[in-house]
Target: biotin--[biotin carboxyl-carrier protein] ligase
Amino acid sequence: MTTADRPALRPDFLRDLLVVPHGPLERLEVVEESVSTNTELAAAVAADPRAWPAPALLVAEHQVGGRGRAGRTWETPARTALTGSLLVRPDVPRERLSWLPLLAGLATVRCLRATAGVEAVVKWPNDVLVPAPGAAADGGRGAAEEVEGWGTRRKVAGILCELLPDGGAIVGVGLNVLQGEGELPVASATSLALAGAATTDREVLLTALEESFALTLGRWQDAGGDAEAAGLVAECVEVSGTLGAHVRIDLTGGGQVTGKAYGFGPDGSLLVQGDDGTVRSLHSGDVHHLRVGSGSTAGPEASTGTGGAASSGPVGGPVGAPAG
Model:
């Protein structure tokens, strides 16, 4: 592709659309290159909190060391993706911030369905998937090749949420937009261009994404952080590509759990009924879809309330797509 096929973002144009009084953001900065927008934004906020009123967004045209869960890093070609980090300070109890990765995934899926016309879903907790070329929209095989652990869906976006010591949070999102097959790191990854999206205009997508985040997080905050009362738990269930699937979860501290994913716990954890009948509430881990469900099905006594605990540091993380 030529430079003309991968135009630069226009910071002033985006500020006119997205920064108050016309948009939801207090500050927006676009940098040519960043090792990690999550790291750089966290450092900037710590150094001068007044200069970064929330919500504030840092976007990089070229991210050379994006971070995900378990310390994974990768690089995205310049001007092919949307890689950015959003500073938020939601007025909700801190223990309810554990819902932030799922709500970020919901906002991203809603944006991609409405703006890009792709049937996006969330693979718990924070991977956004779309059907591979030739696959059915519900994840059915069709003519698409299956990838172990992913079925016929491919990862188009990754999310990494990190809580700050001062009570704020950073939501890093990496969305593959213009990459060709040779520019993707793994077979389970894709881009909007490869997925046949209705638009691959990064400015259109960024604007729609931030508006979707503002709407979703605004509803959550208006309900005092109660995702169920806000109607957001039901929406997270609706966009989940994990619920109803037989899964294997590689646990962060070692070990594995295999069973059927059937619901979300009161803190956004994944409820899995093991092959031995035992129900586990899982807060992190790499999820492999052994049989991707075509929809969400409730299991025994599925819980969809709010509450639970959140801690500082990373919450979830991406594999095969960039994050902040």
